[in-house]
Amino acid sequence: MKNRDLISNIIFQSDKEIHNDVKACVLLFLHWIGRELSFPKKVMVCLLDVEELITTKMEAANGSFFAPYDESELSKIKVAVGSFEEDSKEHGAAMVLQNYIYTLAHEIGTL
């Protein structure tokens, strides 16, 4: 993974194949949420170039949150954004980006 950025206690990573519009939109949201909310512990936000994630419960999902038992490890939020270009053709880029932000906000809500 490349494209690391640190916002408050939020660490951002994305696969290098992720569309620049997706990275820019998510970074804007993370900068905003980092100013609005307190993150007492570091959390890693990962954008993955996959169409869906498989959770620890073996369920398909757009996003996932993992809180490790070992507090020295980082909590991780993963969001599947690999179908951006295909979904944008069908639903429009704005709607797809909105869905990614909604997914990310939902996972942040589980912190």
Notes on the structure:
The model has no long low-confidence stretch (mean pLDDT 91). Helix 2 (84-91) packs across helix 3. The protein is 37% helix and 28% strand. Strands 1-2-3-7-6 form a 5-stranded mixed sheet, with helices on one face. It has one domain (2-108). It is α/β, with parallel strands linked by helices. A hairpin with a 5-residue loop joins strand 4 and strand 5. It is globular.
Mind telling me the C-alpha Rg? 13 Å
Largest sheet features? 5 strands, mixed
The average pLDDT value, as a whole number, equals 91
Query: Structural class, from secondary structure content?
Result: alpha/beta
Could you tell me how far the N terminus lies from the C terminus, measured between alpha carbons in angstroms?
23 Å
Strand content is 25-35%
Task: Please give a quick description of this structure.
With 111 residues, the protein is an alpha/beta fold. The chain is built from three helices and seven strands; from the N terminus they run ββαβββββαα. It has one domain (2-108).
Key terms for this structure?
single chain, 111 residues, alpha/beta, five-stranded mixed beta sheet, two-stranded antiparallel ribbon, 37% helix
